[in-house]
């Protein structure tokens, strides 16, 4: 069961919100977030720009291919990434990734994951995406402050660990199903980061597989985020919170979604949080953990 949590309770019912969120992240690791802090007009704008970039001619998108850089930014065609490493199928989705933005003379450029974003030639795309990146990161930090309370940590425990994040904004485009055997929009996977904030256009397709259950549709609640725990936060909480497999079936009609993968700063040490018991995993830098997961996903399969 995926609960709907109302973010406006942050202001008037924080204990109740904390209890409900704490339950959701231990149960399926998924919840829907109504009345989020990200302004509606920004969510509308990000969808408009998502449509604009995927509607560009193939040749324009190819110029900003994710394969141009080692920093996981830009356009990914079907086959550049397939999320279920165990299956031969190639995901039908196209992607567009935007990372933490740096100026061309930033001294951090060249460090692990620190590259320049690749931008399409679309007038308001860059400004919209950068504003959305910041707003989504702020929403995620708000959620992390609730989770910190839930874990009996100071509410601002995570804030300094996420102030130069590895977070990635990812736009997704799924073409309509063609009906060929074993077609998949996005293969079964768990997310790698701390928390994912997902907006969809309402076209069905997203499913989760709770530990004790079969694949289940994630309901669409207009204007609500689908929020889920990623593997990094599961590890950080010593498996108290759960990261749950999910996938996207080939949709009937074209489907678009906007995912924000909230990640910590590169040097943040991910090690069992205080009060979570005997550590099950060795400590690891957030960047090294992410690298290990991306290396597996981007080992290309033959596009078929
Ligand atoms: O497009 C969606 O609804 C989900 C995408 C997803 O799970 C992902 O990119 O990690
Ligand atoms: Fe995912």
TrEMBL record:
Residues 164-264 form the Fe2OG dioxygenase domain. Its cofactor is Fe(2+). Keywords: Ethylene biosynthesis, Iron, Metal-binding, Oxidoreductase. Its EC number is 1.13.12.19, 1.14.20.7. It is an enzyme of class 1 (oxidoreductase). Pathway: Alkene biosynthesis; ethylene biosynthesis via 2-oxoglutarate. It comes from the Bacteria. It catalyses: L-arginine + 2-oxoglutarate + O2 = guanidine + L-glutamate 5-semialdehyde + succinate + CO2; 2-oxoglutarate + O2 + 2 H(+) = ethene + 3 CO2 + H2O. Belongs to the iron/ascorbate-dependent oxidoreductase family. This is 2-oxoglutarate-dependent ethylene/succinate-forming enzyme. It comes from Jannaschia pagri.
């Amino acid at each position: 069961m995926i609960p709907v949590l109302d973010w406006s309770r942050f202001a008037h019912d924080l204990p109740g919100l904390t209890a409900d969120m704490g339950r959701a992240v231990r149960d399926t690791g998924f919840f829907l977030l109504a009345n989020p802090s990200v302004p509606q007009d920004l969510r509308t704008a990000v969808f408009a720009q998502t449509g604009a970039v995927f509607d560009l001619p193939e040749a324009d998108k190819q110029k900003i291919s994710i394969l141009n850089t080692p920093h996981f930014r830009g356009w990914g065609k079907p086959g550049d990434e397939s999320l279920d490493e165990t299956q031969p199928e190639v995901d039908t989705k196209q992607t567009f990734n935007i990372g933490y933005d740096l100026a061309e003379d930033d001294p951090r450029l060249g460090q692990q994951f620190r590259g320049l974003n690749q931008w399409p030639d679309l007038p308001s795309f860059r400004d919209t995406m950068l504003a959305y990146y910041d707003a989504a990161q702020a929403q995620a930090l708000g959620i992390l402050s609730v989770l910190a309370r839930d874990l009996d940590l100071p509410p601002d425990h995570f804030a300094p660990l996420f102030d130069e994040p590895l977070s990635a904004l990812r736009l997704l485009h799924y073409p309509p199903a063609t009906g060929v055997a074993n077609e998949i929009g996005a293969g079964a996977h768990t997310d790698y980061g701390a928390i994912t904030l997902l907006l969809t256009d309402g076209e069905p397709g997203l499913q989760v597989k709770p530990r004790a259950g079969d694949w289940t549709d994630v309901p669409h609640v207009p204007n609500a985020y689908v929020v889920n725990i990623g593997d990094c936060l599961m590890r950080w909480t010593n498996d108290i919170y759960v990261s749950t497999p999910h996938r996207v079936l080939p949709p009937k009609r074209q489907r678009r979604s906007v995912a924000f993968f909230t990640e910590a700063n590169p040097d943040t040490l991910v090690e069992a949080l205080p009060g979570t018991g005997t550590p099950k995993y060795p400590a690891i830098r957030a960047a090294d953990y992410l690298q290990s997961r991306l290396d597996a996903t981007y080992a290309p399969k033959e596009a078929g």
